[in-house]
């Protein structure tokens, strides 16, 4: 079991993010007392305001000072705190196999998801894991114990990406396993139909989820740094192309730019966060930068 954990959790990376909590940017609803503000008003934690007294209210919550000043019975209300649930959705389709060793897209994405999951569990919030390609391949329901990380890494160790991505269908399936007002982090190269993807993401937004898209690409896919005659093999189709790279480089880079622009516009239209990830970068650096940026946005 330790060897499985070591494939997905790097102690050096964990130590770097240990003091950087994962906080929800919006309001969340949970079922445990925790450290995050709930959108619901209750009688605990931090003062939020007043409402008029209604017959049957507990007199202990009457603000008597306000009564003596205004001759009106009012009830003190407070903001409850709650644990959040974070759903980690990992694309395990064949295109995620591109790259070698630590720079393989699937390896990088799995390590990033597991590391964030570990950080979330340590702060007593809940995390789930789902893997998908043309269908949902596995689902680890939400949990907030360290045993949850063992369950997640055990599942990750069993997956074998062999199929194409049918992302919108899989996301629609997974929406039914979620509550409302939760965090959804999706790790993928997002080589899919953006129109159908947007439709699935809008269903998530309807349920008030905070959505974060980790756009995981290999450096080759971003820069097309190939020279001479190269044979390209299809990962999701049985196909191969032998071509002179100089002949297609400009067209490829222009097509990639159009795709990135369309993806950015999709995220902007729907108020969805997109985190661009290059697998040639250090995972610890990327996660520290992301968590710092979350904190800066939250503070503002």
Task: Please write out the topology.
Layout: H1 2-8, H2 11-17, E1 36-42, E2 46-52, H3 64-70, E3 74-82, E4 85-91, H4 105-122, E5 126-132, E6 136-143, H5 146-158, H6 167-175, E7 183-188, H7 194-206, E8 210-217, H8 219-223, E9 229-233, E10 240-244, H9 245-269, E11 273-278, H10 283-299
Parallel strand pairs: 4-5, 4-7, 7-8, 8-11
Antiparallel strand pairs: 1-3, 2-3, 5-6, 9-10
Helix pairs in contact: 1-5, 2-10, 4-5, 6-7
Quickly give the CATH architecture of the largest domain: 3-Layer(aba) Sandwich
| Share of helix, binned | 40-55%
Order of helices and strands: HHEEHEEHEEHHEHEHEEHEH
Order of strands, widest sheet: 6-5-4-7-8-11
Determine the mean pLDDT. Answer: 85
Shape verdict: elongated
The count of strands amounts to: 11
CATH class of the largest domain: Alpha Beta
Q: What's the CATH H-level homologous superfamily of the largest domain? A: von Willebrand factor, type A domain
Q: How much of the sequence is in beta strands?
A: 25-35%
Number of domains: 2
Q: In terms of per-residue confidence, which ranges show pLDDT below 50 for 5 or more consecutive residues?
A: 27-34, 38-44
CATH topology of the largest domain: Rossmann fold
Q: What does the radius of gyration come to?
A: 23 Å
Structural class: alpha/beta
Distance N to C terminus: 42 Å
What's the number of helices? 10
Largest sheet composition: 6 strands, mixed
């Amino acid at each position: 079991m330790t060897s499985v954990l070591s494939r997905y959790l790097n102690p050096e990376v964990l130590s770097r993010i240990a003091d950087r909590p994962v906080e929800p940017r919006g309001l969340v609803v949970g079922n445990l007392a925790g450290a995050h503000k709930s959108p619901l008003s209750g009688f605990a934690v931090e003062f939020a305001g007043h409402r008029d007294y209604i017959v049957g209210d507990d007199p202990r919550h009457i603000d008597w000072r306000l009564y003596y000043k205004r001759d009106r019975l009012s009830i003190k209300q407070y903001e409850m705190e709650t644990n959040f649930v974070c759903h980690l959705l990992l694309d395990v389709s064949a295109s995620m196999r591109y790259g070698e060793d630590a720079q393989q897209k699937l390896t990088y994405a799995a390590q990033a998801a597991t590391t964030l999951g570990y950080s979330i569990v340590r702060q007593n919030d809940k995390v789930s894991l789902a893997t998908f390609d043309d269908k949902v391949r596995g689902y680890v329901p939400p949990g907030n114990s360290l045993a949850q990380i063992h369950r997640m890494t055990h599942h990750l160790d069993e997956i074998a990406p062999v199929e194409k991505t049918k992302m919108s269908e899989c996301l629609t399936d997974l929406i039914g396993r979620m509550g409302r007002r939760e965090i959804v982090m999706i790790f993928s190269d997002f080589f899919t139909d953006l129109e159908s993807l947007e439709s699935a993401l809008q269903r998530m937004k309807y349920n008030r989820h905070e959505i974060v898209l980790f756009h995981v690409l290999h450096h080759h896919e971003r820069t097309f740094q190939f020279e001479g005659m190269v044979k390209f093999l299809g990962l999701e189709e049985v196909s191969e192309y032998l071509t002179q790279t100089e002949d297609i480089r400009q067209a490829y880079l222009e097509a990639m730019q159009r795709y990135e622009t369309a993806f950015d516009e999709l995220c902007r239209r729907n108020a969805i966060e997109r985190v661009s990830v290059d697998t040639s970068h250090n995972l610890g650096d990327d996660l520290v930068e992301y968590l710092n940026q979350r904190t800066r946005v939250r503070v503002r």
